[in-house]
Amino acid sequence: MPSRMLVFFISCAALAAPANPTLARADDAIAPETVVAVKAATVFIRVEGNGWATSGSGFVIAADARGALIATNHHVAIPTSAGAKQPTITVVFDSGTKTERAYTAVIAGSDTVRDLAVLRVAEVKDPPAPIAFVDPPKLVETMQVYTFGFPFGKALATDKGNPAVTVGKASISSLRTGADGELSVVQIDGNLNPGNSGGPVVDAKGRLVGVAVATIRDGQGIGLTVPAAELGRMMQGRIGRVRVILQKKADGSEKKDAPVTVRIEADLVDPVNNLRGATAHYVLVAPKTKRPEADALDKHPGSKALVLKIEKGTGSGEFTVPVAEGEVLVQVMADAGGKTTTSRVRVHPLTLKVDLSGPPPAGWKEYTPADKTFVAWLPEKPVRQADEARAITVNGQRIHISTVIGRTDDGLSYEAQSIILSPALARVPPKDLYDMFRKAIVAEMKGRLTESKEAQMGMLPGVEAVIESGNVITRARIFVSGARVFIVQVTGAVDQAAGPDGETILSAFRLPGAVAKVPNEVVTPGKEPTVIAGGNNPLFKDIAPEGGLLIGLEIGVGKFGKDDVIQAARPIYRTGGKETLGEQRGTNLTRVTILKAKDGYAVGAVTYRFGLNFDGCSLTFMKVVDGKLDPKDSYESEWVGYVGIKKTAKLGGDGTPIVGLAGRATDKQLHGLGPLFKGQEAFEPKK
Question: 364-508, what's its fold?
Answer without folding.
Answer: Protein Transport Mog1p; Chain A (3.40.1000)
